[in-house]
Amino acid sequence: MSAAIMTGAGRIEMQQLAIPEPGPGQVRIKLEGCGVCASNLVPWSGPDWMQFPTEPGGLGHEGWGFVDALGDGVSSLKIGDRVAALSYNAYASHDLAAETAVVKLPPELDGVPFPGEPLGCAMNIFQRAEISAGQTVAIIGVGFLGALLIQLAKEAGARVIAISRRPFSLELARRMGADDVIAMEDHWKIIEDVRALTNGQFCDRVIEAVGKQWPLDLAAELTRERGRLVIAGYHQDGPRQVNMQLWNWRGLDVINAHERDPEVYVHGIREAIYAVASGRLDPSALYTHQFALEELDEALNAARDRPDGFLKALVIYP
Prior knowledge:
Elements: E1 2-8, E2 11-16, E3 26-35, H1 41-45, E4 63-70, E5 82-85, E6 94-98, E7 102-104, H2 116-129, E8 136-140, H3 144-155, E9 159-164, H4 167-176, E10 180-183, H5 187-197, E11 203-208, H6 213-222, E12 223-231, H7 244-250, E13 253-256, H8 262-277, E14 289-292, H9 296-305, E15 313-316
Parallel strand pairs: 8-9, 8-11, 9-10, 11-12, 12-13, 14-15
Antiparallel strand pairs: 1-2, 3-4, 3-6, 3-15, 4-5, 5-7
């Protein structure tokens, strides 16, 4: 098989290796592709705690493809099934996954790229946010995840205020259905703009989807009394400080919407499959860049640098 190995900060090496055999309860997947996740970027930068080289295909966890081998005891899948999987070495032409972490894709999605993990993540965040008709929802950060959440919130009947840094993202937010968009430039101006849009009440739900200190601070300011602040950003680059006085005073419900239970992840993937197949969710316009596996370094650099028009990179395999 072909596999990408990270050999150091910003360095990729391609290797040809023996195709792994699935163990009991596992399946092997011949991958069609894998999404590039922002969580890869800190390891890609080579922090002190990162160990190089990575395992073959390491850090790739948004893969989809076809089952091409079954381990002993597998009964719910068969060779040839097209699937999305929760696996962890998917920057390679093949990967292994537990049967319980693999979900069949229906015929409606034939030929459609399906990075199941981030799509499932959006569904799980949406569920934790408890968004319903008539609420006002602010989404801070319109990347891939934020754009999906705009669609889901609008489909639920909420009013959506989208706040993001890039003009491209604000234009995208409009296309996804946001009722109002605000440039993420001036902290106090954003607060006053949202105050005016909500008649001084602020927002029933605020989803922080950036993963930096300032958006986290801003998210609390925009959440109404007894509102729900949902942390969806991936805060992996260091500790954060919070304004506990404000959180206390407003009586906020604060939800860390990151899941660690594989069963919950897989449930989210199943929900995402249904949502996309039924037309409730359409991520197709959000896959803005494609790369070959041999170009994984370019894909990671694009995810880091976010050139104009960039939202989500897919690495597509032959």
